[in-house]
Design brief:
Layout lengths: L2 E3 L4 E3 L27 E4 H8 L6 E7 L9 E7 L17 E8 L2 E7 L1 H13 L6 E5 H8 L6 E9 L2 E12 L2 E4 L28
Antiparallel strand pairs: 1-2, 3-9, 4-5, 4-8, 5-6, 6-7, 9-10, 10-11
Length: about 210
């Protein structure tokens, strides 16, 4: 099943039940609700760059806000050592900084690199608004499997309930002309089944738990 959207309008190609919503028109504010964000995209270059970090076993995603009044929210991505391992972040190596999704542009997903302090600030805005703050992990092999789908040049993340917890679902997309078309996934359930804070291992390894 495929869906197409641009920065301001989601248009269903097959069914109206599942839309890829993109950025709202300037001046329009919609509450993200308890899930803390609406959606986020990362293009192939950014994802492969993170997967290429030494010791990367998973990609970790945190829901954040770009500013205190950013009700749509977004997501940070970083490489990590394992499902409940450490974020592979070094202040002195900017290539390891957190990547925050901002918007689609052409065939790219524009991102902002954030140092840990900036990442924690975005998480703080989520908590101050009363929204849920959580993190999800997707194994490097699973992400690479999605990237091998014909036509894939990026990934999309959306919030989804898993039991009592908020989690994230990942899908492969084609990004072009500021639009994202969702691609049919391989067999399996592409949702993180152990989101933190319910499953955190050593909680101190997650910046939203400090």
């Amino acid at each position: 099943m495929k869906y197409e959207c641009d920065l301001y309008l989601a248009i269903p190609i097959i069914a109206a039940s599942s839309l890829i919503a993109c950025a709202d028109k300037p001046g329009e504010a919609h509450s993200s609700g308890g899930q803390g964000f609406t959606e986020a995209f990362f293009d192939l270059h950014t994802v492969e760059d993170m997967l290429g970090k030494e010791k990367c076993e998973v990609l970790r995603f945190y829901n954040v806000r770009r500013a205190s009044d950013d009700t749509d929210g977004t997501v940070l991505m970083i490489a990590a050592t394992g499902d409940h391992g450490k974020d592979l972040y070094e202040y002195w190596q900017r290539s390891t900084w957190y990547r925050r999704y901002d918007k689609l542009d052409g065939d790219r997903a524009l991102i902002t690199r954030r140092a840990k302090a900036g990442a924690e600030e975005g998480i703080g805005w989520v908590k101050a608004a009363g929204d849920s703050s959580y993190a999800t992990n997707f194994s490097a092999p699973d992400v690479r499997e999605l990237l091998r789908i014909d036509g894939c040049n990026g990934i999309r993340l959306v919030p989804e309930r898993h039991g009592e917890d908020w989690s994230m679902r990942m899908t492969a997309v084609t990004i072009e002309e500021g639009r994202a078309t969702e691609l049919d996934p391989p067999e399996g359930d592409w949702i993180c089944t152990q989101p933190c804070p319910s499953f955190c291992g050593t909680g101190a390894y997650y910046i939203h738990r400090r």
